[in-house]
Amino acid sequence: MNQFLFVTLREGTTGRAISESELGDIIRTTGIAPAEIKHINIDSVKVHIPNPRDYVGVIVGGSALNVTNETYDEYQQHVHTQLQKLIDAGTPTLLICFGLGWLASATGGSVDLSHPEETGGSTIALEKAAANDPLCIGLPKVFHGLSGHKESVAAVGPEITVLASGPSCPFQLIRYRDHVWASQFHGEMDAEAMEVRMKFFMNSGYFSPEDYEKIVASLRYIDTNAAHQLVRNFYQHCRRLATS
């Protein structure tokens, strides 16, 4: 199968609307043809990820779930199991936001609440290890992306390579072995996409509703081209591997 798989992790009616918005962001950012991508939304324990080996690459969107919860309900346990299937399969995979914390935790690291980032722009600085990484080809040493999260990675395990850090969050981009990447920032979003996403999370604690207009106005000044390029690099990397 010469397709990409896009996985979203959204529950309920609102979750389905968010997942469709995320799909549109991925298509616009990568330039992938809609026929090239299969979208599956894990909205219940009844939904399972198909065999990842049937796809040339997998992208997993964000989630309202929290790794730092003391206990996990049945749905979150199911999501964790499905994500484990992905990283075990060997298929190139890119995890966004929630997936960074999950990947760090699942591979021997830890997640805490020490470096949250308010909704808006983040500064991302490439580490030396990024020099030979296929997703970082052509990226400036320092660039900006859009973010908003309550949790942050506190430590990573021995099989994790740190590719980018930042002044407000120490782990912005990591790689597991040679086939799984995870970013704290949303490389698929531009100012318009973040404005849409913020409307869904108006009262979820990521930002104060009173600051909504001010944050939206600030987004237009943030250059997200390099963050988009990272997602496109992933798409192109998967295509190269599929035809080599």
UniProtKB/TrEMBL annotation:
Glutamine amidotransferase domain location: 52-196
GO molecular function: GMP synthase (glutamine-hydrolyzing) activity
Leading EC class: ligase
E.C. number: 6.3.5.2
Keywords annotated in UniProt: Ligase
Protein name: GMP synthase family protein
Organism: Corynebacterium mustelae
GO cellular component: cytosol
InterPro entries: ChyE-like, Class_I_gatase-like, GATASE
SUPFAM superfamilies in the record: Class I glutamine amidotransferase-like (SSF52317)
